[in-house]
Amino acid sequence: MASTIELPKEVWLEVFSHLDYFTLKNCMSVSKAFKSFTKLPTCQKTMFRSKTIIPDGGNINLANVRVHPAFDCMSYECATDLDEVYLGDDTVLADTCAADEYATDPPVAFLRLRVVEWKPVQITNKSGVTVLQVMKSLCRFFSNENHRDSRGDHTGWTGWDETKLDRKGRLVLGVDWFDS
To answer: 31: domain range?
Structure first.
């Protein structure tokens, strides 16, 4: 009896097409064959590697926009530097491949971050805004004492509360609440 499961490539591709981002990342470390499957076009959307960047002023269908799942797994206190933003418990975000992946799917060249009632932060990258660029912008934003101090003891990242379009049709990620 064989010690490995031998299935046709088409079956593996079908299985992989139903996996989420983090499960695909785990599969990449299983074997070279699995890693090669994650590089196929069927997995690019899930892996936040889409090739088509929506330019500033481009048409965005909000129903199809997904925010990178890494944002939901981050440990981040508003007053910290970028090297203290963690993915999970102890992995520095900047040291992960998620840092260089697009912040959204489809990727956008222009993104605004709305934090509570302050003026939105704008991020522009013709090659597509990345997870790391978003977190760098948030770190810079909270380096301003007025922004940091007004949160009181509510400084813990809880993820994005909303995704919407501004009046010019550009993507806005909004956060209204921080944990204590």
So the answer is: 9-44
- Bridge partners, 47 (sequence order): none
Co-location of 116 and 84 in the same domain:
yes
Residue 146 banded pLDDT, cuts 50, 70, 90 = low
Tell me what the mean pLDDT of segment 121-143 comes to: 91
Asked if 174 and 160 count as a contact pair (C-beta separation under 8 A), the reply is yes
- Rounded Cα gap, residues 139 and 131, in angstroms: 12
89 SS3 class? coil
Query: Is residue 51 in a domain?
Result: no
User: How far, CA to CA in Å, does 144 sit from each of 19, 79, 137, 147?
Assistant: 40, 9, 12, 6
What is the Cα–Cα distance from 175 to 160, expressed in whole angstroms?
Answer: 5
Residue pLDDT, tens place only, 77-105: 766 788 888 888 788 989 998 999 999 99
pTM of the model: 0.84
